[in-house]
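Interim report, section 4.2 (structural modelling).
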Amino acid sequence: MSFLQVQGLAKRFNDAKVFEGIDFEMERGEFVCIIGHSGCGKTTILNVLAGLDRASEGVVVMDGREVAGPSLERGVVFQGHALMPWLSVLGNIAFAVRSRWPHWNRIQVQTHCQKFIDMVGLTGAEHKKPAELSGGMKQRVGIARAFAIQPKMLLLDEPFGALDALTRGTIQDELLRICAATHQTVFMITHDVDEAILLAERIVLMSNGPNACIAEIVENTIAKPRERHSIHHDEQYYRIRNHLVDFLVNRSKLYQSGELRRPAQPPHVRPGLHEAALAKIVNLRT
Amino acid sequence: MRQGLLAAVISALLMALGVGVWHLATLPKGGAAGGDSEYAKLVGAQKSAFPTPADVGQKLAGHLRDPFYDRGPNDKGIGVQLAYSIGRVLLGFGLAGALAVPLGFLIGMSPVVYRALDPFIQVLKPISPLAWMPLALFTLKDSNVSAVFVIFVCSIWPMLINTAFGVASVRRDWLNVARTLEVSPLRKAFAVVLPAAAPTIMTGMRISIGIAWLVIVAAEMLVGGTGIGYFVWNEWNNLSIANILSGILAIGLVGMLLDFLFARLQKAVTYVE
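Predicted structure of the assembly:
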């Protein structure tokens, strides 16, 4: 049985369907990205996984237990970093650590926090308030806070959306390094195709909303370790990238009109290995 | 710095101008009536009924020299009277805060409680606190307690409304962080909602203390006995305009001090987002 199972998830607001029939699975230690245009319900899916929102239909089972509400087992990195502005960097992380281990003493909490502050490269900024930090540093604090509670799964809601390209690259590298070291299971929303290819083992592609569905699941066949400075020289890179961009630009809108059939089970494709994968998708045209 | 200096100079000039006009307006009228020089010699220059700046200054110096004397119910130092007033204000304000902040929390957290209490708040809020005075005197049967009650009533609304507003508009993200960390409701209230709403709550408190200081003067004029409001009214009965002016000045200075104090507290809990 997979570590995470999402079965028949649907969300409706009144009568408007946002998405339906969302099925996918994740293995322990896997990094999955979800890509789709705005309004397809990515954030809602993430919030349902986090337990912050409830689906109209369907279940989420993590590690053999149904997700019924928020839990310390699932750490969330929010889109707008969500740091508490009256607490320092250390204070923000300590707030989470104290929630996880309420019986720890001050020194235990501090040592644990420091480990994660060092991990995201914020050593020396422990006592700064979020307002004194740059956007990239704030997001690092958010990541450290999520990692510090050592959750079974990490949920990232477009964490680097607001960052400049340079900062984004650096933090992507850090995230890659930390995930490799901790074997963290990660579910991440992104709009950035390159980011998805760098980070994810599998990329879930969603059709446009309303009434969105999972159109396909792309397996990233580029061998690990993938590194930002060399990945674009891999021969598979542009095949995968073109496949993803093609989907976003051309195919993602064809599911609403019925030009492309909504798959009962989303096909797993490996565009990196052979171009035949595309043909398979095209064959679904009605 | 330059601007600060300029502003200070202008302030000083305005002050001098004001006092100067006051001085000229209250100059003794030197027997101009009729031109009868013998009559003028007899009665001397006619002194203005309104005190001159010098008169008030003299009285003020007298009050400052010995602000805390107590020679019976009708003769207490201005410091003693101010202390009575401040005591009443702080007591009424404190009681109001003890009720308004928790209640405001409840209203801010629960839309149902908000809608249930809203009609009462809307009706009670615009009532002048002094309108409660007769009712308070009748039920509480003590003028001193009634004055504190009036302060309590007038302080409660800004604190209640601001607390409810502050609590209701805590950012969803912060509450979601607390939810994903499985923070207990009590810890959430004290560690997330309270610090997040603190600046708004403190603004309410600052408004409340300002209103309380306005109302105490009127309340004390009504209940009498002690306090700066009673002092001013008593000096009106004594027809000592110079003492009234000293009292007015003292009221202004204490009000400024209270506001300054709460501004500092407000600054201490304010955060930059």
